[in-house]
Amino acid sequence: MASNTVTMGHLPSGMGICTTIPDILYVPELIFGGLVWILVACTYVLPHNPQAWVMCVSIFCFLMTFVWLVVFACGSHHNSSGWAAADFIYHGVAAMLYLSASVLLAMVTLAFKSDPATYVYKLDISAVVFSYVATLLYVVHTILSAIRWKSF
Predict the structure, then answer these.
(1) pTM value?
(2) 13, 61, 112, 147: most buried by Cβ count inside 10 Å?
(3) In sequence order, what are the residues at sequence separation of 6 or more whose Cβ sits closer than 8 angstroms to the Cβ of residue 57?
(4) How do the domains of the chain map onto residue ranges?
(5) Cα gap 64→60, rounded to integer Å
(6) What is the tens place of the pLDDT at every residue in 70-102?
């Protein structure tokens, strides 16, 4: 039990972020967030369509996750409990944002599926799936970050 506390109570730096949990989730978060961003950007957006919120969330989370990854990779966090708390808070907020965006994207996809002339249905189905996968990754990262923060 003590060895688990030591490994979870440490914020990695450098290439250590590629081998520790929850930090190994940065790469899949970037991949699936980027896919959501690309797929929503490829679809036809109507003026009353809430996909602008989905784009805002996917771009914000992609950029912030990349910045967060760079901060940890460069070792700028100085291994303090404040950074562990900030990691937990950021991923919690990102999970809530992605959940709201995923629900809106699913709602829009279902609402416009009967209009094939102006709507690219298969792209948005893919975006919905990847959005929910990104949401799941952020939720798991939030839970694991909370465990690490509490072990400091």
Answers:
(1) 0.84
(2) 61
(3) 97, 98, 100, 101
(4) 22-150
(5) 6
(6) 888 887 766 666 788 888 999 999 999 999 999
